[in-house]
Amino acid sequence: MTILRLLWLPTKWPPSVPDCVVKVRFGDRWCRHAEVWRVEKKMAATTKKIGKITNCPECASNNLVEDFDLGEVICQNCGLVLSEHAINRGPEWRAFTKEERDERGRVGLPTSFSIHDKGLSTVIDRVNRDAYGRQLPLATRLEMLRLRKWQIRTRVHSSADRNLAQAMADLDRLTDKLHIPNPIKERAAIIYRKALESGLVRGRSIAAIAAASLYAACRLSETPRTLKDLAGATRIRKKDVARCYRLLVRELDLRMPVEDPVKCVSKIATKVDISMPTQRRAMNIINEARRIGIVAGKDPMGLAAAALYVACVLEQEKKTQKEIAEVANVTEVTVRNRYKGLKESLKLNV
């Protein structure tokens, strides 16, 4: 049972203070009782000072909840209603699934560096229907056609915009072909924009600089992609991509981390169809070699291929040096030399 203590009001109110009636919520019932005028005065002062009520003026609690159905802000401790007729700033529609929310939403994509105008321009659609779904008149369709044409022209109006549009299209194609995630594509777009601002693209191939930017982003994020992978996905020679990559590293002062051979193990093992226990054995071999100090200065792909071959021999999984070397894009001589080095340093009985 809830006990409500009624407050005795003074016989005369101050002349400047109107009669105040405050609602208090107890459980699921609404009760009304009169409160002294200083509570309302304190609430008004708090609201005027900070613009939004954060503490209850009666019990000084910050445990406030907003009832969107009734438009009220209520204190959870004492039940005092601090604000009424609050505005619901959400959408006027309701959605219960992600598909309904995406269908009814009226906002576009977030800004992205991988779009030449960062996604901030307007797009005039080719629907040719009004808000009610009715076909537009011929004169209006012709006018919208002219507006659409000039809108496309104004989106790409300078040489820098045309350069960015072509480079971002190349980046989209490369990332889709090499299965590179979106954050790395954004990083590559930022590197290309810096190169364009520094004047490094002038007189060079846009596709080569875009491929070099993507390779630099992969190296910065330690994503296992080689120059040969980038060159194979484009029509640019590996030597040209490597030259542009060295230019970006030198002029933009990029600090590249040392590639971890452990991350190359899964890439090679997936293509050769090597079991997971053998992959874990190869990773342990590389970690032990790093602890001894024989990893520095070695090609990560060659070291990972040799560790996988050693693990296959130890786990009695039949894989040849030629199969692993072809997938890792190294020679059999490299695999054989790294294999001998691991065998002698770790004292393996192979």
Q: What distinguishing features does this structure have?
A:
350 residues, three-stranded antiparallel sheet, two-stranded antiparallel ribbon, 13 helices, disordered N terminus
Structure described in brief:
This protein has 350 residues and is mainly α.
Task: Present the secondary structure layout.
Layout: E1 21-26, E2 29-34, H1 37-50, E3 64-67, E4 72-75, E5 81-83, H2 98-104, H3 138-155, H4 159-178, H5 182-197, H6 206-220, H7 227-233, H8 238-251, H9 262-272, H10 276-292, H11 300-314, H12 321-328, H13 332-346
Helix pairs in contact: 4-5, 4-6, 5-6, 6-8, 9-10, 9-11, 9-12, 10-11, 11-12, 11-13, 12-13
Question: How would you portray this structure in words?
Answer:
It is a single chain. By secondary structure, the chain is mostly helical. The chain is built from 13 helices and five strands. Strands 3-4-5 form a three-stranded antiparallel β-sheet, with no helix packed on it. The protein has a two-stranded antiparallel ribbon with strand order 1-2. The protein is extended and about 80 Å long. Residues 1-51 have low confidence and may be disordered.
